[in-house]
Every structure is written in structure tokens, then in C-alpha cells.
Amino acid sequence: MAQDHLDFEEPIVDLETKIDELRELSKRDGIDFSSEIKKLSGKVNRLRKDTFSKLSPWQRTRLARHPKRPYALDYISNISSGFLELHGDRTFADGVSIVGGFCKLDGRTIMIIGQQKGRDTKEKIYRNFGMSHPEGYRKALRLMKLAEKFNRPIVTLVDTPGAYPGVGAEERGQSEAIARNLIEMSALKVAVVCVVIGEGGSGGAIALGFGNKVLMMENSVYSVI
Fold first, then answer.
1. Boundaries of every domain in the chain
2. How far apart are CA 110 and CA 115, in angstroms?
């Protein structure tokens, strides 16, 4: 089974496991472990604060790629309602590494577009590990133009190690698709807010990262070189 935490999180995970065990024992045997749980909880909080206050750049990069980090569809399902996913670039294929569609955010209809890496092995392969083919970027641009047509703001969720560098992607114009997005996004007549939610890598990130505001979640990374 794949590990769901990082090595420097091990001491924190061990303490949290002990707390869960004490809670289970308390529930099963009717023994009051509340004082022990309180002490361990305080220790966890102190250890977490200490650990995450002195992370190295590489550790922060690993956090940006954390196996339990929320992905685009997690954000969409938790912060919006009525998400209607739209498919296809109308030229070649769907480009499933990128998801997007209209939804409601605080009562306002917006277009939300995000890069989806995949949670388990099957989904990671299906989503190509978040590395989009050109049809993904062309789909994203089609959705942006649709939002502009209906005068709806756009939110993009950036999370990719980079654009897919395969032969087929290059043959179908990977560089052109990224460049076209930058040109068109710079001229959109609606507000565009870009949020790096995990890993913002290379041209694959800037293809969705050109907007009026660019934000980054804590422990995310952005490197387009």
C-alpha cells in the first residue's frame, strides 16, 4: 500500500495513531483516557508547529506533491455547488488531465478550470499524472472563451509537474497550445484568478496561470523554468 505521509511527518503520525488507539480503547472498554489524550494532543500540536516551522525548500516541494493534498476536484466539490463539467476541445480529444465547467461560488456563477493529477494508480494513469496534452489546454481555452461570452469570471486551479513531453503531444502542437493560451488569456474581458494549489511546474502551469490575480496555497511551489 502506498505511503500516505512523508518521512518527516512520521513522529506526528505515530502520536496521532496512539491518540486514535486510546480513543478506541476508551470507547470499547469504557476507560477514561481523556487526560492522556489531552497530553498527547498538545504534544502533537507542538511537534507539528516545530516541524513545519523549519522546513527545507525540498521538504516544501514534497508537501506540494503530498499524496493526501487536495486536488482540483476536491476544491471544486467543497467550495462550490452545481458543478457542470464540460468536455472536449472540439478538435481532437477531451484532455482529461484538465477539468472545468460552470459552478456556483458564493451564489455567483463562475467558470472553474483545474488540473487533476489523480488520487490512486488507476486515476493517475487516466489523468496522465496531471500532465496535460495540447487538447487539454485547448479545452481550457474553449471554456475560458465560453465564460467570456457569458460574462462570467474565471478561476483556474494550477497543479501539474508540467505539460506532457511525449512525441504525440509535440506533434499535435504542445508549445503552440500553451502559447495560444497565454495570448488569449491576456486579452480576456472577464476577471481571471489563478490559484496554485500544489505544484506549478513549467509551461504546463503558466498555460492556466495567466490572470488578473495569481495566488498560491501554503506549501505550494511555482517554477516555470
1. 7-54, 72-223
2. 17
pLDDT tens, residue order, the chain (225 aa): 356 888 888 889 999 999 999 998 888 888 888 888 899 999 999 999 999 989 999 999 999 999 899 999 999 999 999 999 999 999 999 999 999 999 999 999 999 999 999 999 999 999 999 999 999 999 999 999 999 999 999 999 999 999 999 999 999 999 999 999 999 999 999 999 999 999 999 999 999 999 999 999 999 999 987
* Residue ranges with strand state E in 18-107: 81-85, 98-105
Query: If you compute the radius of gyration of the chain from its CA atoms, what whole number of angstroms results?
Result: 21
Cα 36 from chain centroid (whole Å): 37
3-state secondary structure of 198: strand
Q: Are 13 and 51 in contact (CB under 8 A)?
A: no
Q: Which CATH number fits domain 72-223: 3.30.160.20, 3.65.10.10, 3.40.50.720, 3.90.226.10?
A: 3.90.226.10
